[in-house]
Write a structure and sequence with these properties.
442 residues, twelve-stranded antiparallel β-sheet, 21 strands, mainly beta, 4% helix, eight-stranded antiparallel beta barrel, 3 helices
Length: 442
């Protein structure tokens, strides 16, 4: 199944009706009942999701990450009488190859990272959409993930495309195709909003994207967001008289699902089902975050900066309702790390340590769990996760920590679809491997 991500548009929720695309639950040895028998009335809460006519708030299951750090770039002395502008700073940057100071422009200082995946009983994302005004609100506030995205968007006022889309979001290709040469997902659109006032030295921008309800799934959707907040201070000087420019970064990433969950009475208690859909994940993969090897015992020189990477692909879910078991298989492709602009400028002039997993690496993960007895939900854990080798990076088998998790629920009138959030954490000491994502299936 191909994922289709589209913008939050007036027509995206209000006029994207059509035949019911939900999957049916199939019992062994029986014929699957059709899901098209569900009501398409404007008062039907399930039909409303793909054909929304009134304002509604949806609760999402999200996997969220944040990182804060400071990047320092050595500079020459201030230019007397020259004020900073958006394009001409009062400090002239010096390429790392000809530095007059110790700051390379990509090494991270005071780096702090946090991540969290939600559970059904404690969601961390809400989406409100009002089709009459085409205004919607994203709230991804999670104390454990240190995320604070809370934005209102209006389409078409906040619609963006091409080079206008902020950094940190790749050109997503069709699932499981090469992230550079693969066919572009032509249905990928974004809405974007500036938080507060943007100046030459500060910015705070949030971009939100999601899969159109009714396109690949009928009762839930897959979504993601990026928030980049940056403040640059020029004319800094340290105790040794070295001049530098300092950029403080507060970055957030998230992947989540939201929709209309199945009522408890609608969840089957017998039979089996297979769901096919997609997953989206954001990851930090950095075994050299502290400048040590994978065992945390031997210095390896300068620590590698941590950058977010996206992973995009297909999800296959199998459920045995009679045995209350569930299995999830994820197969996708890793996108290249996306440095912040300050780091990217320095990286283009020097040779920083290579990332552990390069763009184009295949990703796979396997999870299993159990259904909540008498309810709508499931929990599980991952038994395996790995990245394949590329021309510039070796294969990586993730040693999975016991805090890794799988949580989700069924959607639609009769568990027609499935969705959830997941987290895969590396257990090797001093090794930062944290993959947070969401998946769907029908």
């Amino acid at each position: 199944m191909r994922i289709i991500l589209v913008l939050l548009a007036t027509t995206a929720l209000a006029a994207c009706g059509g035949s019911d695309g939900g999957s049916a639950i199939t019992s062994v040895g029986s014929t699957a009942p059709s899901s098209s028998g569900s009501s398409s009335s404007s008062t039907d809460k399930y039909a409303q999701f793909a054909n929304q006519t009134v304002a509604k708030t949806y609760v999402g299951l999200g996997a969220l990450q944040s990182i804060t750090y400071t990047v320092k770039q050595s500079t020459s002395a201030p230019v007397p009488g020259v004020a900073a502008t958006a394009t001409t700073p009062a400090i002239a940057p010096v390429p790392p190859a000809a530095q007059v100071g110790p700051y390379d422009g990509y090494t991270h200082g005071t780096e702090f990272y946090a991540g969290n995946a939600a559970i059904v009983n404690s969601p961390n994302v809400t989406i409100t959409y009002d089709p009459t005004s085409a205004i919607f609100t994203l709230n991804a506030t999670d104390a454990n993930a240190h995320t604070n995205a809370n934005n209102t968007f209006q389409d078409p006022a906040h619609r963006v495309a091409g080079s206008i889309i902020q950094w940190g979001i790749p050109q997503f290709k069709q699932p499981n195709t090469d992230p550079v040469t693969g066919p572009l997902d032509q249905n990928l659109y974004f809405v974007q909003a500036v938080n507060g006032t943007q100046t030459p030295t500060s910015s705070d921008v949030t971009t939100f994207f999601y899969q159109k309800p009714g396109s690949t799934t009928q009762y839930l959707t897959l979504a993601g967001y990026v928030r980049n907040a940056q403040t640059t201070s020029t004319g800094q000087v340290d105790a040794n008289g070295n001049y530098y420019t300092s950029t403080a970064n507060t970055l957030e990433r998230g992947a989540f699902v939201y929709g209309v969950p199945t009522d408890t009475s609608g969840v089957p208690v017998t039979g089996t089902a297979t769901y096919n859909g997609n997953f989206l994940a954001t990851a930090i993969i950095n075994p050299n975050v502290y400048g040590v090897n994978s065992t945390g015992t031997s210095p390896q020189g300068t620590p590698t900066p941590s950058y977010f990477q996206w992973i995009y692909g297909n999800a296959a879910t199998t459920v045995d309702f009679g045995k209350s078991t569930i299995g999830v298989q994820l197969n996708g492709v890793t996108y290249a790390a996306l440095p912040d602009p300050a780091s990217a400028a320095a990286i283009s002039l020097t040779s920083p340590p290579a990332q552990a997993v390069s763009g184009g690496a295949a990703f796979s993960a396997t999870a299993a769990g159990s259904l909540v007895k008498g309810g709508n939900g499931f929990t599980g854990t991952f038994s395996a996760a790995s990245f394949g080798a590329t021309a510039t990076s070796s294969a990586v088998n993730v040693s999975i920590a016991n805090v890794s998790s799988l949580n989700g629920q069924f959607y639609g009138p009769a568990a027609n679809e499935v969705g959830g959030a997941f987290r895969i954490v590396g257990s090797v000491p001093n090794q930062r491997v944290d993959i947070l994502g969401a998946f769907t299936g029908k």
